[in-house]
Amino acid sequence: MTYTSTGSARVTKDTITRIKAGTDMLALCDRLGIELKRQGNASTGSASRYMARCPFHEDKTPSLSVNAGKGLFHCFGCGEKGDVFALVEKVKGIGFQEAVRYLADLSGVTAVPETGIPRTLSAAALEAPQREPEARPVEATFTDKERQEALSRVVAVYETNLAASPEAEEYLRKTRGITDNQVIRYFRTGYANGNLEKRVAADSRQYHLLQELGILNGQGREVFTGCLV
Ligand SMILES: [Zn+2]
Q1: Taking the alpha carbons of 33, 37, 43, 46 in that order, is the dihedral positive or negative?
Q2: Are 194 and 216 in contact (CB under 8 A)?
Q3: How far apart (Å, rounded) are the C-alpha atoms in residues 184 and 68?
Q4: In the predicted model, what is the mean pLDDT of residues 31-50?
Q5: Across residues 96-101, what is the average pLDDT?
Q6: Residue ranges of the chain that CATH labels 3.90.580.10
Q7: Measured in angstroms, how far is the CA atom of residue 32 from the centroid of ligand 1?
Q8: What is the pLDDT of residue 15?
C-alpha cells in the first residue's frame, strides 16, 4: 500500500475496500479534469496504464502515470503518488472523509459507518442540515384513524339528515329517480343541511379536524350546505 489515510476512519474498512473496487479510475480522472493518454496496448499487458499532465506541478510533458486497473497514480516529476482517495484529496484539496464521501457518491457504494448502521453518503444529503419538522398546533394534528372516524360520523349525520328531510328525499325520488331506501342507504347518500357545524361547535378538536378534512370551511360553515352528498 502506497498511501495511508491520515483522517480518523468513520466508515468501515470494508466500505473503503468496496469504494476502491467500485471506483472507475478513468471516470474519476475525467471528472477531476485529468486528461489521460493510453500507454502501450493489450498485447504488452499494459492496457490499463495511462499518462497525463500532472495537476500537482507545472507539467509540460505528461509525467503522471496512472494505473487504472490498480487505481493508483504516481508522478515522475514531483513524486506525488497514492490511491483514488489520495487523488481526490489532493486535486480537490479536501480531507480523507470528504474524499470517501465523494467517491462513495461517484461509485454508488453505500458507506457503512463504524456503528454498523448503513447510510448512503450522498454529498448533498450530508451538506444539507437536518430540518426539524415544523411544530404544528396540537389541535391541527390528527391521526388517519381520527380522520376516518370523523368522516364516518359526518356521513352518519348526513344520512340522518336525509331521513329527516322529506324535501331532500323527495328531490332524490323525483329528480334522480331513486326510490329504493336500500339504494339510498347503500350509497350512503346524505343531506348536508348545515347542522353539522352546530353539532361539533362545542368540540374544538373535532371542529379543526372537520376543517382540515374540508367538511367545514375556514369560517366554520359546512361546505356542502344544501347539497346531497
Ligand atoms: Zn507531478
Answers
A1: negative
A2: no
A3: 75
A4: 80
A5: 95
A6: 13-127
A7: 15
A8: 92
CATH class assigned to 13-127: alpha beta
More confident residue, 112 or 47: 112
Distance from Cα 93 to the centre of ligand 1, integer Å:
15
Identify residue 222 by its one-letter amino acid code: E
Ligand 1 centre to CA of 43 (Å) is: 28
What separation in Å is there between the alpha carbon of 53 and the centre of ligand 1?
8
Which set of grid coordinates corresponds to residue 83?
490511491
Express each pLDDT in 171-216 by its tens digit.
767 777 777 776 666 656 667 777 776 776 667 777 777 777 777 7
Closest CA to 55 of 79, 24, 91: 91
